[in-house]
Design brief:
This is Phosphomevalonate dehydratase large subunit-like domain-containing protein. It comes from marine sediment metagenome. Keywords: Iron, Lyase. A two-stranded parallel ribbon has the order 1-2. The longest helix has 16 residues. The radius of gyration is 17 Å and the shape is elongated. The protein is built from 4 helices and 2 strands; from the N terminus they run ααβαβα. It folds into 2 domains: 41 residues, no CATH class; 59 residues, no CATH class. The termini are far apart. It is 42% helix and 6% strand. It is mainly alpha-helical and 102 residues long.
Length: 102
């Protein structure tokens, strides 16, 4: 069973908003899957798999944002999977390019 700090428990209980609660539920579930017994504090993060890969990925990110989820440490993302300025040269459909920019 995973041991949570007071802060982690408060996030999981929704005291920092529904978006943070959703994120903490995912983190704690993954910790359980991997047999982790506690979480560690961080001072920076990289958000992987943030590329547009279809509507589900965009809808999930927008849902978290609409629920007030925000990063609380300095964070980086992957580069875009679409050329921001020359996407037309690669035969990328306009709606795909628009969604990738969101």
């Amino acid at each position: 069973m995973i041991r949570l700090s007071k802060y982690d428990k408060s996030v999981l209980n929704g005291e920092h908003g529904p978006g943070a609660k959703i994120a903490m539920k995912i983190i704690t579930r993954m910790a359980e899957v991997y047999g982790v017994d506690r979480l560690m504090d961080i001072d920076a993060a990289h958000i992987d798999s943030s590329l547009y890969m279809g509507d589900a990925t965009l809808e999930f990110a927008e849902h978290l944002a609409s629920q007030g989820a925000r990063v609380v440490v300095p964070s980086t993302l992957n580069v875009s999977g679409v050329d921001e300025h020359g996407w037309q040269a690669w035969s990328v459909p306009p709606d795909w390019a628009d969604n990738a920019r969101r």
